Amino acid sequence: MTRLAALKVPAVAEFDAPYFLTCPGIGKVTTDYKKNQNIFCQGETADSVCYILSGRIKLTVLSEQGKEAVVGLLEPGQFLGEGCLNGHPLRTVTTTAMEDCTIVTINKSVMLAHLRDEPAFAEFFVAYLLSRNNRIEEDLIDQLFNSSEKRLARLLLILAHYGEGGVSHPIDIDISQEMLAEMIGTTRSRVSFFMNKFRKLGFVSYDGHIQVHRSLLDAAFNEKPHLQRGM
Question: Which SS3 state, helix, strand or coil, does residue 57 take?
Answer without folding.
Answer: strand
